[in-house]
Amino acid sequence: xxxxxxISDPHFGTEQPPVVAALHRLANMxxxxxxxxxxxxxxxxxxxQFSAARAFVDTFGATPFIIVPGNHDIPLYNLFAxxxxxxxxxxxxxxxxxxxxxxxxxxxxxxxxxxxxxxRKDGEISVQQVERVVRRLDHATPRQLRVVVTHQPVAAxxxxxxRNLLHGREHAIERWxxxxxxxxxxxxxxxxxVTPLHVAYKDLPxxxxxxxxxxxxxxxxxxxxxxxxxxxxxxxxxxxxxxALRRAIVMRWDFSRASASxxxxxxxxxDLDSESSLKTPxxxxx
Length: 286
Fold this sequence. Notes:
Layout: E1 2-7, H1 17-30, E2 34-38, H2 47-58, E3 65-68, H3 79-84, H4 88-94, E4 101-103, E5 107-111, H5 127-137, E6 145-149, H6 169-178, E7 183-186, E8 193-196, H7 197-200, E9 209-212, E10 228-234, E11 247-256, E12 261-271, E13 284-285
Parallel strand pairs: 1-2, 2-3, 5-6, 6-7, 7-9
Antiparallel strand pairs: 1-10, 4-5, 8-9, 8-13, 10-11, 11-12
């Protein structure tokens, strides 16, 4: 069994100490095999905010992380820095690689940088980035859960979020489905949900799901949606040579102010290779 913890949009600089402490307790209880941070690590891409994020990551010890930038991780008001070296503070604390990859016997997780210095909020993915992901997916094993991480979403659960969708997503979804991707993890809109992309895109050759996370730590919650994180439970040990029997459970954990802890809210069981999943509603709020 492999556990993946998805932390998105913590917006360090607006983090809430009781929520940070509760997330530490949850992580200590779950002991995830990998933590994914899907963008907007900071509120304004400042050195102190990235240092706070680095200190948070360090509390996980040897647990591996996949970290991709979000639009908030590029300077907004310092125009020279935004143009000349937009990722300098991010790379100072998290390293030069803005598109990291993690691989184990049961996981292949591929990060994609969908931010652009010339875009204030919107995300974009190039043909070259799409094909880079395809090349990595082509070498996945039948046992692995194949995950792509972006910041901006590739599917919307609500009409007013259509404007936030990733530019170039249609081509990316088609190519990644052909290459066997299972999940696309994202953030950006602070709204958690799971949606089967193979329902919205009828001719996809392989089932692929969008898994969106809310804001993990920030006071910038959306409406009545609390701080939340996603936990993905995957067991590939029973997978046969053709990749059958692969299943994942996506769990949403919400912060409860009453208990000052993260509590399991709901979960979705995804039968990754069965056509029965095609009957799932287009978008299900996690």
